[in-house]
Amino acid sequence: MPLFVNEIFYSLQGESLHSGRPCVFVRLTGCNLRCRYCDTTYAYEEGKPYNIQDIFIQATSFHCNLIEITGGEPLLQPETPELISKLLRERFEVLLETNGSVDISIVPPECIKILDIKCPSSGESEQNNYKNILHMSPHDQIKFVIGNREDYHFAKSIVKERAGHILPHHILFSPVASVLSFKDLAEWILEDHLEVRFHLQLHKIIWPGDIRGK
Fold first, then answer.
1. What span, in angstroms and rounded, lies between the C-alpha atoms of 99 and 92?
2. Which residues contact 104 (CB under 8 A, 6 or more apart)?
3. What integer pLDDT is reported at residue 205 of this predicted model?
């Protein structure tokens, strides 16, 4: 079975602890969520079928060791773990960005998973699969995209309730672009002495207004 691919491009990684590193992005087609702030709605349906070898050839042509599989929601396609495994076997460093609603236990443990936990303003917080936290490795990361004070309290409560299963330096709090002030989120974190990492979308700062391929 082919994988449906929306785009493959080379840019800077912008949404994880690897932010700032050159990275190849393989954006797969399809998503089961409809977050209100989604900035990749074009990946819901658009895409072409590729076999895994063709994806591998195109992704590795940029001569970059860091490759991210993203979407949409890449784990909706059953062949995604096979693509990740092939890249890992060839000694590439692989990131997977997932929306947190799909079981991540099928992903090879060597892959670095960037797991979203959806906050209320997304409109999809009821879709969070909290069992995924139990399948995370020490190098994996949890990301909360925060749009308002309610989202912040929601994220803070999860961090505190599940602290025994989460490494603090792997928790990212990111403001919804153009919705929540960077300053407000930073000050909330400092006021609460919360052991999380304040995080910005680097690519939106470097290339403001660009929608695709950055």
1. 23
2. 75, 96, 98, 113, 115, 132, 135, 136
3. 87
Tokens standing for 92?
């590439």
Residue 167 has pLDDT above 70, yes or no: no
Pairing relationship of beta strands 48-50 and 3-12 according to DSSP bridges: antiparallel
Section 87-91 average pLDDT: 98
Contacts 24+ apart (CB under 8 A), 187-195: 188/149, 188/152, 192/156, 194/156, 194/159, 195/159, 195/168, 195/169, 195/171
Structure tokens, 102: 């799909």
- Predicted TM-score (pTM) of the model is 0.93
Q: Which residues pair with 22 in a beta bridge?
A: 12
Q: Where are the alpha helices (DSSP H) in the chain?
A: 52-60, 80-89, 149-161, 182-191, 202-206
